[in-house]
Amino acid sequence: MMRADNLFKTFNPGTPLENPVLRGLSLTIESGQFVTVIGSNGAGKSTFLNAISGDISPDSGSLFIDGQDVTRQTAWQRAGLVARVFQDPLAGTCEGLSIEENLALAMQRGQGRGLSRAVKASYREQFRAKLATLQLGLENRLGDRMGLLSGGQRQAVSLLMASLQPSRLLLLDEHTAALDPKTAAFVLQLTDRIVSENKLTALMVTHSMRQALDHGHRTVMLHQGRVVLDVSGEERSRMDVPDLLAMFEQTRGEKLDDDALLLG
Amino acid sequence: MSLISLMGALEIGLIFALVALGVLISFRLLNFPDLTADGSFPLGGAVAAVLIAGGHDPWLACGLAAIAGAAAGWLTAWLNVRLGILQLLASILVMIALYSINLRIMGAPNIALIGLPTVFTPFISTVNDNAWLIQPAVLAVIVVLAKLLLDAFFASEAGLALRATGANPRMARAQGISTDRMTLAGMALSNALIALAGALYVQTQGGADISMGIGTIVVGLAAVIIGETLLPPRSLWLVTLATVLGALLYRLLIALALNADFIGLQAQDLNLITAVLVGLALVLPKIKAKLRNKQGGRTA
């Protein structure tokens, strides 16, 4: 379970570039729920994800994962609770290290690291079996450098890495945005499989309303640093992209009215 | 070039192999441009010389020198990760500070160790002078040991975490690695190796001198870069091997250049030769790649 309470974050406060990104964002995700997040540019999607992962620290508000207050924890301290896949395929893996070394790094996520061999023989068997499920032929290339793989392959391996160790929350930050449509479809399918097989609690940011409705159990829309729409269950399954778009425009219109009221 | 001067070049080359391994950790693995070496190399030399001159065991002197070097590297990293001082600048600050500290430790600009026991003494015959052979042999054992230990460390969980810290810090943190701690530890390890080299250097040279650290970082970097042109970086044990070979080759080339009378170079031209060699080592891979491209174009 993840709970975000009234998160605020302003970049460059007190300067002409002042940019309030999160403005009282609250969201609760139940265990085992797969939530998709949409929103226009600057709505605060990435900042929200970075706040959950610990890459940035919110100005105010609090964040609980599994009942644990992680608001002031650094990214590496909460890595045992949170797994993530980045938007940039190059960001989630080390290109200079081999495939098995990357997997071995993920194998120890959130655990102490000692002087014993990183790539153990027993790990290799496991890696081979897991990589075989991707059907990309990577199970025979354990020793190859990560940099030799294509973006789609690297993103698939990143997903595998995120599921090697149990996590309380899986963060997916537009992880198919940099891929071609066919590869993106493959990685999304893989995402669905890994999330359901491991019964993961997941938060997926996407720029595509189609993806947001087709995947997961619940869809949340962010606008100006707040949750403006939250649909799930029956209501969501009846929805289509035009409905969502209409609601999107409606909320934007309403927001403008609100602002006008405030200014007036 | 005589056999004695060849062995002399090997001896210095082996010492700088340790420096180069240290530079490999900071510059290449941690991606931390670190100039502390110019201070930590004489720091190791100063600590070892003072202890040996004070009648202490030379191996103990080497160990304490390495610990002093580790503290210097840790300080540079601390200035960077805790106080946010730019990497290069943090290392320059520590390097400058070490000049004073080294003078304090030594108490004089130089310390002579002639006739005092060193780590080499037990192996050197008192009947015939075989120091020219024994010193490089002992150093070779130390360097091989250091290389194998480093290889084992980099293949361990902690070693892999250190490499990930340099290669992709954001990913490393997402995997639960404290990149700050890894940087502190890696920089300590790097400068411990460099200080150990300084401790061995004063024992081969018969004394320590306050100015012995000048240009250490350039020589170490030269060795790393030459090593990179020698062997492909397919795995890390090849990279450490290339670094050691790079240091040896570098000293041999220097010795050859200084020994070739017809060129007319003298000892004071050392830094000029270093600059030319590093320049060549930087440019050669590009020329090689260009030639390969041209050939590829012709066959296609």
UniProtKB/TrEMBL annotation, chain A:
<dbReference type="GO" id="GO:0005886">
    <property type="term" value="C:plasma membrane"/>
</dbReference>
<dbReference type="InterPro" id="IPR003593">
    <property type="entry name" value="AAA+_ATPase"/>
</dbReference>
<dbReference type="InterPro" id="IPR003439">
    <property type="entry name" value="ABC_transporter-like_ATP-bd"/>
</dbReference>
<dbReference type="GO" id="GO:0005524">
    <property type="term" value="F:ATP binding"/>
</dbReference>
<dbReference type="InterPro" id="IPR017871">
    <property type="entry name" value="ABC_transporter-like_CS"/>
</dbReference>
<keyword id="KW-0067">ATP-binding</keyword>
<dbReference type="Pfam" id="PF00005">
    <property type="entry name" value="ABC_tran"/>
</dbReference>
<keyword id="KW-0472">Membrane</keyword>
<dbReference type="GO" id="GO:0016887">
    <property type="term" value="F:ATP hydrolysis activity"/>
</dbReference>
<keyword id="KW-1003">Cell membrane</keyword>
<keyword id="KW-0813">Transport</keyword>
<comment type="similarity">
    <text>Belongs to the ABC transporter superfamily.</text>
</comment>
<protein>
    <submittedName>
        <fullName>ABC transporter ATP-binding protein</fullName>
    </submittedName>
</protein>
<keyword id="KW-0547">Nucleotide-binding</keyword>
<dbReference type="InterPro" id="IPR027417">
    <property type="entry name" value="P-loop_NTPase"/>
</dbReference>
<feature type="domain" description="ABC transporter">
    <location>
        <begin position="2"/>
        <end position="249"/>
    </location>
</feature>
<dbReference type="InterPro" id="IPR050166">
    <property type="entry name" value="ABC_transporter_ATP-bind"/>
</dbReference>
UniProtKB/TrEMBL annotation, chain B:
<keyword id="KW-1003">Cell membrane</keyword>
<dbReference type="GO" id="GO:0022857">
    <property type="term" value="F:transmembrane transporter activity"/>
</dbReference>
<feature type="transmembrane region" description="Helical">
    <location>
        <begin position="12"/>
        <end position="29"/>
    </location>
</feature>
<feature type="transmembrane region" description="Helical">
    <location>
        <begin position="108"/>
        <end position="125"/>
    </location>
</feature>
<dbReference type="Pfam" id="PF02653">
    <property type="entry name" value="BPD_transp_2"/>
</dbReference>
<dbReference type="GO" id="GO:0005886">
    <property type="term" value="C:plasma membrane"/>
</dbReference>
<protein>
    <submittedName>
        <fullName>ABC transporter permease</fullName>
    </submittedName>
</protein>
<keyword id="KW-0472">Membrane</keyword>
<feature type="transmembrane region" description="Helical">
    <location>
        <begin position="270"/>
        <end position="287"/>
    </location>
</feature>
<dbReference type="InterPro" id="IPR001851">
    <property type="entry name" value="ABC_transp_permease"/>
</dbReference>
<feature type="transmembrane region" description="Helical">
    <location>
        <begin position="35"/>
        <end position="52"/>
    </location>
</feature>
<feature type="transmembrane region" description="Helical">
    <location>
        <begin position="238"/>
        <end position="258"/>
    </location>
</feature>
<feature type="transmembrane region" description="Helical">
    <location>
        <begin position="183"/>
        <end position="204"/>
    </location>
</feature>
<feature type="transmembrane region" description="Helical">
    <location>
        <begin position="137"/>
        <end position="162"/>
    </location>
</feature>
<feature type="transmembrane region" description="Helical">
    <location>
        <begin position="210"/>
        <end position="231"/>
    </location>
</feature>
<feature type="transmembrane region" description="Helical">
    <location>
        <begin position="83"/>
        <end position="101"/>
    </location>
</feature>
<keyword id="KW-0812">Transmembrane</keyword>
<keyword id="KW-1133">Transmembrane helix</keyword>
